[in-house]
Design goal:
about 300 residues; alpha/beta; Metallo-beta-lactamase, Chain A; 8-stranded mixed sheet; 7-stranded mixed sheet; 9 helices; globular
Amino acid sequence: MKKTKTRRWRQYDPFSILLLFGAIAANAVLWYRIIFSSAIATQARVYFLDVGQGDSELVILPGNVKIMTDAGPDDKVLQSLARVLPQSDTYIDAAIISHPQLDHFGGYGSMLDHYRVGVFIYNGRDAAPNVAAWSQLLAKIKEKNIPLITLGKGDAIHYENNEIDVLSPDINFAQSGELNDTGLVELVKTPGLRALFTADIGFNIEDFLLSNHLDIRADVLKVAHHGSKYASSDAFLRAVDPKVAVVEVAAKNSYGQPSSSTLARIASSTNAKIFRTDRDGTITVSAGDGAIEIVKEK
């Protein structure tokens, strides 16, 4: 390698994060090791998993607390997880679905056959009625008695001195007819690293984040919508000011992603080094001693 919060709860309830921890309490056996783990790592790690034309990010916090966002379109996520986790490590503390499109949730179906999950988190929206994989995933989550919790803007997940803030969608965007508008935007904050996960948001959601004067600065940016030309505006990129930009995309995909115009905007508006899963495979980002370390699979 190369170095270089039942089904749907009231949306955006101000107590939703309390519900999340209520779910944790209800699964005390599974969550025991999160609180009392003796295997304390010294720094957080973020994996951008190579899942083809889709998104999947795995954050591992000190104490081996694992929070996963999206699982790509199919069972390829299993291969990527097997390469970054020990064979005996088959527990994911929280699984987040940024929004109900197949290239973001499809892999969770097969993942649940091999991994235990403490809680599922989503934006409260359903996929289109003709997307059978969505109803199958919900049925499997219910069958395994995994809590399914809705989060939105203003909610947060806390673990010790680490935090994941949900910046979008607000209650209006959550009802949008365009599912990309409903994607959970997460700002991961650890003592040594900040990462911004942007799902498939477009310019309109970026403008929303900017107009609300949110602190979206991040060391690492998950480039929105696989590098689509309809996202990653100059103003947004300057506000994030990332050191590292990661595009999750499949080689020779039919969408022509990432767009050359988006790559040009990243280059002109930031000093970020760009990594791509189609060329670099799974990308690991960690921080220590004031520096960011990148490990590429390819």
